[in-house]
């Protein structure tokens, strides 16, 4: 396959440069001519929603997604309702920022009953859906790697995400394919195909070996073992031609200057994605 | 459900006391009246095969399994053959030690083609099977947690292990259910049921939160989020009533004295398994 040889679809997820503020990342995008950005709610909150929107628009950037909604399971009905309320605010913010997709990191179980927590996720998405639809925001269910099942999400395979998403129209709900989370899955290509027409995002990074850490072990594309080009090809065959987010948690990358991270990201995106 | 309230089925996997030699672990088993032991090849090699056998027999211990065969994928045919040769030696050692089961940790991919590596695992098991059968050793395919896909095994779900094992009779090949590796799997209970009659081992530990490390993050039963009793119940409903191995990689536990580890293991086994 030919390299992509363009950054037209590159979206810079701002967590990849975690030390930078939102205004600083927007400046880097503009200087590097990266056309898309993915935002995190806590970063938007630091800068302020209106100011974040103004900066992104003035820079001519498009917002591929907002991270993150979700975190549905909780021990009490009151707490679960509070999570829904927070998700509604996330939907509002996504709409204000012009993001089409709110990424859902669905949350861990409040106790040892992981099956019950998975049901809470389904229920929470059902409860949130009418409001999201009324705001024109699609909910993108992102399965997280099984090593995060205890702390971040009980949705750990694309099969689970597809099963939930299929309860809705593709205009309402879909899945987000993050290569780092799903590359190991024996059902990966079957499930990408099953997700045809409802893939709402594609995230790339790499799995580095030896893996130094559960959270901070992601690497820059090309530094690990993931066959990113094969996965991109499958995602495209399933009809997804939208922005491709680079989302990396890695202390070495965080210690680089913003412009250096952007230069490296663009180079690796062209060579390996 | 009633607690087990007996250690009749407890098998101490010697890696749980990694600082001890095989003779020291055997002594601890005898003092603690633990009836089963699981051995590792590198520990057996340190003490010598004949001496290891003598010690285990003299202590009246039964060997639940030998760890480990596997590691089938490799870049060249010659290297794959060398792995098979090593697996035959592992079968010999298992037979000499009176272990019925050789646990297979199937190995990582030599490159980015994880599907090809999975095929190499199937081919390797097929190649090894006649010899194992002739020695009366069952091959127990242990799926490893997906976070080990890049470094230890491309067999990451019980579904994969079942699919391979079903190509053989239950007298030849089965699966090993290690709670730490499979607790997160949405298909866990369906796949345990599917494995009825061919479960060759059940391993317990716990998943501690926050998870400190990929390899050393296992905890003592009761210290984490795994619903061990529910999994034990499912494994028993699938017909497994053999030894239950406690297998824990954890530096804090490794720093305890042998007798203290055994006391804690027995206590937690009775309370939480």
From TrEMBL, chains A, B:
It holds the Pfam family AP_endonuc_2. Keywords: Isomerase. It comes from the Bacteria. GO terms for molecular function: isomerase activity. InterPro entries: IolE/XylAMocC-like (IPR050312), Xyl_isomerase-like_sf (IPR036237), Xyl_isomerase-like_TIM-brl (IPR013022). Residues 40-252 form the Xylose isomerase-like TIM barrel domain. PANTHER family: HYDROXYPYRUVATE ISOMERASE (PTHR12110), XYLOSE ISOMERASE (PTHR12110:SF52). This is Sugar phosphate isomerase/epimerase family protein.
């Amino acid at each position: 396959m030919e390299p992509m040889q363009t950054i037209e679809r590159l979206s810079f997820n701002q967590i990849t440069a975690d030390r930078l503020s939102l205004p600083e990342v927007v400046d880097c995008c503009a200087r590097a001519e990266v056309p898309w950005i993915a935002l995190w709610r806590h970063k938007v909150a630091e800068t302020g929603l209106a100011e974040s929107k103004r900066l992104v628009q003035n820079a001519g950037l498009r917002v591929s997604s907002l991270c993150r909604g979700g975190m549905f399971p909780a021990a009490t009905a009151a707490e679960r309702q509070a999570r829904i309320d927070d998700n509604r605010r996330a939907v509002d913010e996504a709409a204000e920022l012009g993001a089409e997709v709110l990424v859902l990191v669905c949350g861990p179980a409040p106790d040892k009953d992981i099956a019950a927590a998975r049901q809470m996720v389904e229920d929470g998405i059902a409860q949130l859906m009418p409001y999201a639809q009324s705001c024109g925001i699609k909910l993108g269910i992102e399965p997280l790697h099984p090593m995060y099942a205890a702390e971040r999400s009980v949705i750990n395979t694309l099969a689970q995400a597809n099963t939930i998403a299929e309860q809705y129209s593709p205009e309402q709900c879909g899945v987000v394919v993050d290569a780092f989370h799903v590359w190991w899955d024996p059902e990966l290509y079957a499930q990408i195909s099953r997700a045809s027409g409802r893939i709402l995002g594609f995230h790339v990074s790499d799995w580095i070996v030896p893996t130094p850490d559960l959270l901070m072990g992601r690497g820059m594309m090309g530094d690990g073992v993931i066959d990113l080009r094969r996965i991109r090809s499958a995602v495209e065959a399933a009809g997804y031609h939208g922005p491709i987010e680079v989302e990396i948690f890695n202390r070495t990358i965080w210690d680089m200057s913003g412009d250096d991270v952007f230069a490296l990201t663009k180079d690796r995106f062209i060579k390996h994605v």
